[in-house]
């Protein structure tokens, strides 16, 4: 199969390569629900040395810069409690943690979660965290610009490999809330 975006040697429907995914991502693909069929989620094998966005687009296609999204874990604090959430924004923007995220989570303070918290809670590798397969009950905040794309390049749960996911499917993930202005210039 040919990848819907980018210049990759091989592309495979995610349900056909579950062994390439981390356990939580593979399970999410197995249990997939929504208006977009699971086989429209595409896995592409990539070299982990080129996992970071700037190097990645140089190797796999400059057009991917406008079609890539970063998924980051944030921690919202209020009183004695902490709410973990994922934020998905275009790779050309940054997450508005102190504005949009803090207000959406009803938090007094919001910040990026520590690396060990992000990886420990998600079961994914740092630099490969994806919104597919996050823990049940987590808010998944999706920038409207991401949801509007026909396909979005996101992590696969590992630094090796990426997922190409229709924006509409990301907007339908469990716990997903599509927000204008989540990603800022």
From TrEMBL:
Molecular function GO labels: aminoacyl-tRNA deacylase activity
InterPro entries attached here? Answer: YbaK/aa-tRNA-synt-asso_dom_sf (IPR036754), YbaK/aa-tRNA-synth-assoc-dom (IPR007214)
Q: Gene3D superfamilies per the record?
A: YbaK/aminoacyl-tRNA synthetase-associated domain
User: CDD domains, alphabetically?
Assistant: PA2301
Which residue intervals define the domain YbaK/aminoacyl-tRNA synthetase-associated in the entry?
64-172
Query: What name does UniProt use for this protein?
Result: Prolyl-tRNA editing enzyme YbaK/EbsC (Cys-tRNA(Pro) deacylase)
Q: Give the source species.
A: Streptomyces griseochromogenes
């Amino acid at each position: 199969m040919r990848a819907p975006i980018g210049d990759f040697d091989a592309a495979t429907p995610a349900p056909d390569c579950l062994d390439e995914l981390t356990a939580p991502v593979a399970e999410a693909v197995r249990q997939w629900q929504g208006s977009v069929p699971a086989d429209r989620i595409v896995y592409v094998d990539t070299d982990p040395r080129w996992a970071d966005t700037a190097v990645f687009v140089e190797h796999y296609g400059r057009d991917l810069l406008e079609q890539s999204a970063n998924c980051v874990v944030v921690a919202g604090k209020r009183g004695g409690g902490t709410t973990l959430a994922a934020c998905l924004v275009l790779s050309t923007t940054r997450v508005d943690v102190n504005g949009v995220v803090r207000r959406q989570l009803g938090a007094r303070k919001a910040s990026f979660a520590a690396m060990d918290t992000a990886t420990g809670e998600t079961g994914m590798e740092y630099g490969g965290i994806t919104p597919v397969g996050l823990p049940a009950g987590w808010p998944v905040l999706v920038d409207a610009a991401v949801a509007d794309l026909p396909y979005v390049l996101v992590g696969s749960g590992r630094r090796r490999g990426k997922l190409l996911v229709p924006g509409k499917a990301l907007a339908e993930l469990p716990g997903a809330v599509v927000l204008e202005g989540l990603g800022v210039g």
